[in-house]
Please model this.
Amino acid sequence: METCRVKGCTNEAIHEVILYDFYPSDGTVFFEQDHTCAFICAEHAIENEEKARGEREPRGGGPGRGGFGRDRTGGGGRRQRY
Model:
């Protein structure tokens, strides 16, 4: 059993947090576990979605972007950071 990785939370984690970006310009995808907060509980997943604000833009990684030929945003580029 994993525990929620949000600081101070001891709830059981039910979600693995994945960073995902899609670049329509060349069709590349970046998909990997978010190492800053790898697992979260239901409460924090809901809070994350409700409070996430900002533009949906890739956070890097695709070809010519200094990455692995893939890109990432974590929910389309809008994430609450814990």
User: Anything to note?
Assistant: The first strand starts at residue 15 and ends at 16. The chain is about 10% helix and 20% strand.
